[in-house]
Design brief:
globular, Tumour Suppressor Smad4, 2 domains, Rossmann fold, 15-stranded mixed sheet, alpha+beta
Length: about 300
């Protein structure tokens, strides 16, 4: 029986737009007589510590109120502080892309997401674990990791102060297309397969979408014990643009230069050049050499529709 809801609120989410939505949250929870408290994040990494401090309480649901970065930190905090029980996790989406909540079957509208929290239906949620770069001990992710092109896009989008939501990622994509030059040669091993080639992009997905618009893994299921792979060989700019358009519809399977597959453990190594990597939009490295990526089956439960 859940007796309390701790809402970990990121006031910087949505480039500050989340603050305007906070009164709606309090009004709803008070009207529905739902016990809650709000804890405000004060900077990068703070949501991890806030979530970890309450993760072992079996009577508390931890709610991330923010974007994908907030969800990522809260999930890492739950894994850091959980005890013998499985933590219960919810989301009030207030970010730019809200890709994790999309893949987690959580409505984009705040009023509908609040109704989901009230109903309290939950299921097991797999998490990914990436080791390497700035996180040799590992960083958990709920939606997915990107290696290469989409990480650079995310870094460019984050620089745009007056462009919001998916438009920031579109602008970041255009800027990256202009700047992007060479691709590293990588070795990737998973299952009984070994692939060596030059690649522009590797996505390993627990969810379905990145950047608010791009369906890197349209068939992914977040509680099947597997991660979905979408890998793009080094292409000309024209072919890459055509591929990106397919991403917006999730129809890239079968295109020349596209590999889509599934697995529970991946080893990725740069044979030349470096790996630029993000996990749920959080930078893992900008010149990494080696990654281990695994799927962890069902360590938390997620409240969803």
């Amino acid at each position: 029986m859940i007796q309390n809801h701790i809402i970990i609120f990121n006031p910087s989410a949505g480039k500050g737009a989340a603050l305007k939505k906070l009164p709606l949250v309090g009004d709803f929870l008070q009207r529905e007589n739902i016990s809650y408290s709000i804890q405000y994040t004060e900077g990068i990494g703070h949501a991890i510590e806030l979530a970890a401090s309450s993760a072992s309480d079996p009577h508390t649901a931890i709610i991330a109120a923010g974007g994908d970065g907030t969800c990522n930190e809260v999930l890492n905090g739950l894994m850091k502080g959980r005890g013998e029980h499985t933590p219960l996790f919810g989301v009030l989406p207030m970010g730019r892309g809200n890709d994790f909540s999309f893949g987690g079957h959580i409505p984009a509208r705040l009023d509908e997401a609040l109704q989901v929290i009230k109903a309290g239906k939950s299921s097991p949620l797999d998490l990914g674990l990436v080791k390497g770069g700035d996180y040799p001990e590992g960083r958990y992710f709920g939606n997915g990791i990107g290696v290469g092109f989409d990480t650079i896009v995310g870094l460019e989008a984050a620089k745009m102060k007056h462009v919001h939501d998916a438009f920031a990622y579109i602008a970041g994509t255009l800027k990256t297309l202009i700047k992007f030059s060479d691709s590293p040669e990588v070795e990737m091993v998973y299952g009984d397969k070994r692939i060596v080639r030059r690649v522009i992009q590797i996505s390993l997905m627990n969810g379905r979408r990145m950047g608010g618009l791009f369906y890197m893994a349209p068939e992914a299921v977040n509680n099947d014990g597997m991660l979905d792979l979408c890998m793009v060989d080094h292409l000309t700019r024209l072919k890459l643009i055509k591929t990106i358009f397919h991403y917006t519809k999730g129809t890239q399977r079968g295109l020349d230069g596209i590999t889509m597959d599934r697995g529970d453990h991946f080893h990725i190594r740069a044979l030349d050049g470096g790996l630029v990597v993000h996990a749920d939009g959080e930078t893992i490295c900008i010149d990494g050499k080696e990654l281990e990526v695994s799927c962890i089956p069902g360590p938390v439960r997620i409240i969803h529709t």
